[in-house]
Amino acid sequence: MQKKLMLLGGIRYLLPAIEAAHKHGYHVITVDYLPNNIAHKYSDEYHNVSILEKDKDKVLALAKELKIDGILSYAVDPGVVAASYVAEKMHLPFTCSYESACIMQDKSKFRRFLTEHGFNVPNAKGYTKAEDALKDVDFFNWPVIVKPVDSAGSKGVTRVDDPKDLEASIAHALDESHNGHFIVEDFLELQGYQSSADCFSVNGELVYADYSDQLFDKNAENPYTPAIEIWPASMPQEHQDYLTSEIQRLLKLLNCGTGLYNIESRVCKNGKPYIMEVSPRAGGNRIAELQRLGTGIDLIEAEVCKAVGENVEGITMPQYNGVYVNYIVHSNQDGAFDEAIIDEQFKKDHVIEAEIRVKADEHVETFKGANNAIGTLFLHFENRQQMDEALANQAWLKVVVH
User: Fold this and answer.
1) What is the pLDDT of residues 205-223, one digit of tens each?
2) pLDDT grade, residue 326 (50/70/90)?
3) How far apart are CA 131 and CA 6, in angstroms?
4) H-helix segments, 43-129
5) Exposed end of the chain (fewer CB within 10 Å): N or C?
6) Element (H or E) spanning 228, and its range?
7) 114 alpha carbon, distance to own chain's centre
8) What percent of the chain has pLDDT over 70?
């Protein structure tokens, strides 16, 4: 019988997972409460059910009714807890237990878990009420970062340098929160670049560990939204080795099995490497697609096959031929989109793929989060120097908005 794979969410990032599932002949069911989302046009079946944690029993009821063989919240952060819950209740394959997913998906719980097990971790505390955080201003080493405990794509994240601005930042975080919880933590000064990359474990063993350089647009409305991601990372190998060892230790402590993770990490000016976030899902911004281009290793197909109980083989540590860049096309002003103009010679030399998903005259918003992206460019360079020169002078791209 044809296997049924349920995918929670409907955003564009699901499309490669749907493609991989169809390649293997699986029947794809997409689920969320936004029927106009693009992924529903490519799935075999759509159901209008909320995928948020509070609605996990509704997802479970639907999954039982449809007799699914697997479930993923592929690159969709709000559905991860519900997916892990359904998988556990129905004895389906999943990267981790429901309990572990709850820890990883809640930034406050995750910080507490890291602290309890001796990982490098910033001074942090979670809250549900603004007044409680305002009483704790002396607990932190300023500046601080304020963010929802359950959001992704840098939505609701602000740096606060002065305690008098804390209340406004908390309000902003709560606006982007699904569960009404937020976290305040010390702002750790970066040494080099933050990393965001997809990794993979098989039977709890980290068989694919990867790191990137994540760059930001300092002119964007939200300067903490990733604008450029580069592979391989410039992070010193000793720090990469330390982080790989610590991520492996973390996966063992959380009793993780086989599956894909989006992992954010950084080295700070105090000389310490930190695991910042681990989520049992693919990253946004088409990270696994870019990594597949650069390494030839298909984590997307592996994740889809794992979800319906197929064996996963051929996943090894990544090796890159040259330098690969994930460039997020965006606007720093609101308005109607005209076009994105790419220099023809640059396109010929360096552009592997150009995806502009906004149509002419469509409204675009200034770059506050990943959801404000106009499109993606996958770029390739022979070496880091060539890439640095291209990114230092970005005259090869012009985004026209009126």
Assistant:
1) 999 999 999 998 888 888 8
2) very high
3) 41
4) 56-66, 80-90, 98-105, 107-116
5) N
6) strand 226-231
7) 19
8) 99
What 3-state class would DSSP assign to 359? coil
Rounded to 5 degrees, what angle do the CA atoms 236, 270, 260 make? 50
The overall pTM is greater than 0.85: yes
Place of tokens 């601005």: 165
Cα 330-209-297 angle, rounded to 5 deg: 75
Contact indicator for 230, 210 with CB cutoff of 8 Å: no
Tokens of 370: 């990943």
Give dist(CA 264, CA 135) in Å, integer.
30
Q: Please give the residue that has the higher pLDDT: either 155 or 355.
A: 355
Integer Cα distance of 362 and 359 in angstroms: 6
Backbone angles phi, psi at 273, to 5 degrees: -85, 145
- Token readout for 268 is 């700070």
Say how far apart CA 73 and CA 86 lie, in whole Å. 11
Query: Read out DSSP for 300-332?
Result: HHHHHHHHTT-----------SSEEEEEEE--S
Q: Each residue of 246-265: pLDDT tens digit?
A: 999 999 999 999 999 999 99
